[in-house]
Amino acid sequence: MDFKSKIILISGPTASGKSTFSVKLAKKINGEIINADSMQVYKELKILSARPNPKDYQKIKHHLYGFHSVKKNFSTGDWLKISIKKINEIKKRKRIPIFVGGTGLYFKALTDGLVNIPNIPIRFRNKVRAIHNDLGQENFYKKLIKLDPNSKEKINPTDAQRSIRAYEVKQFTKKSLHDWFQNTKSYFEKDDFLKIYIDYPREELVRRIVKRSKKMIKFGAIQEVKKFIKLKVRKDKSVNKAIGINEIKEYLERKDMTDVIEKISIKTRQYAKRQSTWARGNMMSWLKLHPQDLNKFLKKIK
Questions:
Q1: Which end of the chain is more exposed for a tag (fewer CB within 10 A), N or C?
Q2: pLDDT for res 1
Q3: Can you give the pTM of this predicted structure?
Q4: Distance separating alpha carbons of residues 160 and 9, to the nearest angstrom
């Protein structure tokens, strides 16, 4: 396969080994790695965001990791603008850009273009989430279909994240989310991308998640959250949703270490499930690689 003209995209659920695989691939094809994870952009969340090993930075050039303050807004649009610039810089160096991460919206913005939906106030969005919590996904989905019939063909009935987004956009803008997307255009052509999704068996992924949760605590996640608390980040900032922050805050009050590891593991498993749901709906055309396929894929590269 000719990688020289490609932009490589590597996604998969959290803890699936994306970073390790991307470094091995970068060595093989003379690549540079660009972060596609919304939490790994923050400089204050090194451990909780599972930022790649510093040793890997010495081997392969990495971009967009730990460069932004948790106190400042950082949107998908901001990420896309910087990423396009990085792609051009890397290609000028005759190297291959490799995007790695688990944030589906980042990849969608890169491959499909970014929809220009007006900003929806956080209070309005929180009201929609409260409705979802009260009704549950099944009844909320029925409510969405009544409000926006277009969603029936586009959104899986079990996909809570996309259901909430479609509802808030239609309710606030009076225009269907799917109509907004029809007006988008990518900066790139479809053939510019090689898209790889690492698909881990559920049971093995759960074991990896528990192991990583323990490792985070061992290597300083509690101290990281203590520093985060002192920053007094506004509650409406999306960084507050980072897995581990609220769980460790509770631990600092109760001092139950077993409990905090279990809670972080459960939250991470739930997140991995949402990522898999997103992939089934939005990454159907991606090349699916199971763990046993990764080394075989690398060996085929000359």
A1: C
A2: 67
A3: 0.82
A4: 25
